[in-house]
Amino acid sequence: xxxxxxxxxxxxxxxxxxxxxxxxxxxxxxxxxxxxxxxxxxxxxxxxxxxxxxxxxxxxxxxxxxxxxxxxxxxxxxxxxxxxxxxxxxxxxxxxxxxxxxxxxxxxxxxxxxxxxxxxxxxxxxxxxxxxxxxxxxxxxxxxxxxxxxxxxxxxxxxxxxxxxxxxxxxxxxxxxxxxxxxxxxxxxxxxxxxxxxxxxxxxxxxxxxxxxxxxxxxxxxxxxxxxxxxxxxxxxxxxxxxxxxxxxxxxxxxxxxxxxxxxxxxxxxxxxxxxxxxxxxxxxxxxxxxxxxxxxxxxxxxxxxxxxxxxxxxxxxxxxxxxxxxxxxxxxxxxxxxxxxxxxxxxxxxxxxxxxxxxxxxxxxxxxxxxxxxxxxxxxxxxxxxxxxxxxxxxxxxxxxxxxx
Length: 406
What we know:
Blueprint: E1 2-9, H1 16-25, H2 32-39, E2 47-56, E3 59-68, H3 70-74, H4 81-89, H5 95-116, H6 131-146, E4 151-154, E5 157-161, E6 163-166, E7 169-172, H7 176-184, E8 189-195, H8 201-210, E9 211-212, E10 219-227, E11 237-246, H9 247-252, E12 256-267, H10 272-284, E13 289-296, E14 302-311, H11 315-325, E15 332-340, E16 342-350, E17 353-362, E18 365-371, H12 373-383, H13 387-403
Parallel strand pairs: 1-4, 4-9, 5-8
Antiparallel strand pairs: 1-11, 2-3, 6-7, 10-11, 12-14, 12-15, 13-14, 16-17, 17-18
Helix pairs in contact: 1-6, 4-5, 5-6, 5-7, 5-8, 7-8, 12-13
């Protein structure tokens, strides 16, 4: 059985209107008329929906807008989470749409409460409580249900700079609530040359509630482009890929996925002893892996490329450690997705005694197992044998006790 999944390529950020513009641009059976019909059951007024073709730097797509009447635009009430609940309960929307919409607003409320140091029920929604934000968020839930999307995936997000005008005044970008929302889900970031807000609180909450920050195995059937209002050197749009995730593709490799930070630097003026100490220092500080690759730099100088892999949230600290503990003048930082087999440690009984081995699995299936070096070294000392002899015994027991039983 196949599943409908969507991949959000957020290279230019995301907002609620960009998301709906991309969903409507798919031309997959979800139209502006059907969106209007569904939203009509909300006890809201004073707004108009517009969808039009838009083109930027040769890329064609759609631009979605919620236009407020002049009076409503200037007299928006300040709403709380309980007000949003009342609006949703008064509608005739499906329970799934209501629950999804409320979950997105709860995500916003939780972030605002953390930023302002208050309880969730005390949070006053300003911009995100206005009619256009309610329409964007509810529309996102309506579109997801209408298109039958079972899972959203999203790319790393652009980390821009600058400021944004908000109800509380001028705030740094990303806005504090946006940053808190995406921090809570460990969203991966990548640097952007753009200035200004690229990810709105509404866009962040939709991502955090609906999406997983991974690259899926997908057969792409349709692509939609939802354009924003800002001008960048590239097309300012959200690219949405809709397709199928077939069971045969999903389960061919039953591996885990996550995101890591990769830090690299080329070094040509440290001795082998100092490089060895640097590796120990990085691993002790929590690096997942450290490796050295021989390279040749300008003027024929031999050098090594230091590669450090660490958890996303430890990237800055690890980069700082590499800068301070080595002779390098700079480092390169990027984020990468990992596909990982499951790993467990098990004790097996051998003719030489108990031994811990590392077991590699994909799903529930054992692929391979290998003895731990320290364990083999311990038995070699205890039994007066060579390390090679202990490894040979361990490999034989692993083959008969673990691999063949699967």
